[in-house]
Design goal:
Number of helices: 12
CATH superfamily of the largest domain: Enolpyruvate transferase domain
Helix content: 25-40%
CATH architecture of the largest domain: Alpha-beta prism
CATH class of the largest domain: Alpha Beta
Shape: globular
Mean pLDDT: 95
Low-confidence stretches: 417-422
Number of strands: 24
CATH topology of the largest domain: UDP-n-acetylglucosamine1-carboxyvinyl-transferase, Chain
Distance between the termini: 13 Å
Strand order of the largest sheet: 21-22-1-23-24
Largest sheet: 5 strands, mixed
Length: about 425
Amino acid sequence: MADALTIFPPCHPLRGRATPPGSKSITNRALLLAALSRGSSRLTGALKSDDTRYMADALRAMGVSVVEPDATSFIVTATGRLHAPAAPLFLGNAGTAVRFLTAAALADGPVVITGDTYMQRRPIAPLVAALRSLGILAEASTGCPPVTIRGRGGFDGDAVNVDAGLSSQYISAILMLAAGGRQSLRVALKGDAIGARGYVDLTCAAMRRFGAQVEEIGTATWMVQPGGYRATDLDIEPDASAATYLWAAEALTGGSIDIGTSPRRFTQPDAGAYDLIRHFPHLPAEIDGSQMQDAVPTLAVLAAFNAEPVRFVGLANLRVKECDRVTALATELSRLSPGLAIEEADVLTVTPTSPECFRPARIQTYSDHRIAMSMALVGLRVPGVTILDPGCVGKTYPNYWRDLGSLGVMLEKLDSVDHFIQ
């Protein structure tokens, strides 16, 4: 991939078809659940990206057969048991893979879960504390990966309280692990805060699809029965977070982009952004990003061209993603026009300005796919926007630049920030 891409505003509305890749959230859940099942599961419509490849490779290292017959399918064949790998599991900056693979507590020996330098700064202490309360031998000396888990083939705990204030993935990880326990497990939320609650519902739906018995009791407690999982075939829906970029591109250019799936058919929480995007340039004055976190960068870019200022609240969890996305958005939007976006605590305020106040800019992406993809949308309206490290989109949407090009967006590659190539 080139070192940078310059985006040229199209002189026409974007029209055509671009299909988002399969859901990262569902793909990584399904890969793990299939690996914990006995038999063969075929996953179709799946995402093939950095994050899902890390997950698939980790499962292979633990004795699971993961075959890739085509560009959007996995065939997972397992015995229902995981084996301790010969080396630490390296998972890059794949947060879902790192959190979910604490299911290594069901393995038959020690497992070290680690990632790149960015992943080693992402908190995991609340999840480790929940594991330890179940009698599982787990430790993360820095409160971040690497995590060492000494698997004993199962666990005996019957109740756990999970602090999911930083990430709903902590609850999802414990829920998926729970079906491999030796007795019923009551999983309760500690406190009132939970990031992106809709993803817990997504987890429960995937567990049920693979045969687990999970029941929600009230709004903050789940009961999971032992018995493990059974192999099944699953067709995975497109990624709703990826769809937001295409919905926004349509709105910014007055175009019409067919993504192949109705917004109403998505089960992922970020699909809720559609009902906001369709009102552009009259977005609400305040948007709570806590339940559609990965859509916030897209919405923040749209807010830069809105009719009125937009205040984004509920952003605490965005500070512990692939980068601190609140600071990244404030910094990079203001690079285009000073004061365009201002952060204060966990609030981001975007105050739109007149088109002549925007200036060309080289956008830092902080190795964060969502910063790269969302900030690229600015280039649909503003000349001279260059995205640095564009290859980071491979984390979840490897064909993003190709899809923009297919819709008529002109992109110019640079092999260094100073030298254009054809």
